[in-house]
Design goal:
44% of the residues lie in helices and 19% in strands. The protein is of the alpha/beta class and 274 residues long. The protein has two domains: 156 residues, Rossmann fold, CATH 3.40.50.1860; 107 residues, 3-Layer(aba) Sandwich (Rossmann fold). Strand 9, helix 11 and strand 10 form a beta-alpha-beta unit. The structure holds D-glutamic acid (DGL).
Length: 274
């Protein structure tokens, strides 16, 4: 059965994968963390496009993926439109949940936490122009937060400081809705909640992305048979052992086996097949 390829710059997309697995338990997933290149947030759009094209080719040609979920706001912002033009495979991308936030805010003020790459993209500019009319949007790129999360430090003084600095001006301005616009950030949700308190709504778009994946698979007649158990394969372009421990920590699994994928120029290939 053909798998669904899921990728992110690192472990952030695991916050999407857990909802994909819960909602689509019969599917086979291949999750690729491009940790050789993390973080994407401070890279140019050209670089991110090149990585996303290489990963898509790898998923399509080597793994015969039937669909691809870009579990990364930054890569979706830079590359999704182009990938849809260039590759004949259904894609599901991500974007900061500006639309649901604008719909549900009472104060008319929403805060968006995403990466610098996402904020700088045309896709994000179009998104806010279309859906945030009449709403004041506060943005913060949370510089340094993705590397902390990648290092497994989910509750460190640095994480508290970065989030405090990002959220304090938003709270002072009367923001009542905060969007987690980077897939790494749900892993520091307890810290965000501790800072904003219960009066602020926090939106993680991952459940909606998993639902959308189900819709896209159904549209293309690609859903797996329901009575078969699904599976997941974990790949990284970085170091295998730390990655295995990260997956175990973040998804609550034991004895996770991971594989290494290797970049050779712009091409990606898996070095060890199971
Ligand atoms: N997790 C990614 C996102 O959703 C990118 C983080 C990064 O590599 O900077 O934007």
């Amino acid at each position: 059965m053909a798998p669904i390829g899921v990728f992110d710059s690192g472990i952030g997309g695991l916050s999407v994968l857990r909802h994909l697995q819960a909602q689509l338990p019969a599917e086979h997933f291949v999750y690729l963390a491009d940790q050789g290149h993390v973080p994407y947030g401070s890279r140019s759009a050209e670089e991110i496009i090149q990585f996303s094209q290489g990963i898509t080719q790898f998923f399509q040609r080597q793994l015969n993926a039937k669909a691809i979920v870009i579990a990364c706001n930054t890569a979706s912002a830079a590359a999704l439109s182009l990938l849809r033009e260039q590759f004949d495979v259904p894609f599901v991308g991500m974007e900061p949940a500006v639309k649901p936030a604008a719909r549900q805010t009472q104060s008319g003020k929403v805060g968006i936490l995403a990466t610098g790459g996402t904020f700088a993209s045309d896709r994000y500019a179009r998104l806010t122009a279309k859906h945030a009319q009449g709403v004041t949007v506060w943005e913060d790129p949370c510089i340094g937060l993705v590397p902390e999360i990648e290092a497994g430090r989910l509750d460190s003084p640095a994480v508290h400081q970065i989030l405090q600095q990002a959220l304090s001006p938003m709270l002072a301005a009367g923001v009542d809705t905060v969007v987690l616009g980077c897939t790494h950030y749900p892993f520091v949700l307890p810290v965000v909640e501790g800072i904003v308190g219960t009066a602020v709504t926090i939106i993680d778009p991952a459940p909606a992305v998993a639902r959308q994946t189900g819709v896209v698979l159904r549209q293309h007649n690609l859903l797996a048979e329901r009575d078969q158990p699904g599976s997941v394969r974990f790949l990284t372009t970085g170091a295998a052992e730390p990655y295995a421990r990260q997956v175990e920590q973040l998804l609550g699994l034991n004895d996770v086996v991971v594989e290494t994928a290797v970049w050779r120029g712009e091409r990606l290939s898996v070095s060890s097949n199971r």
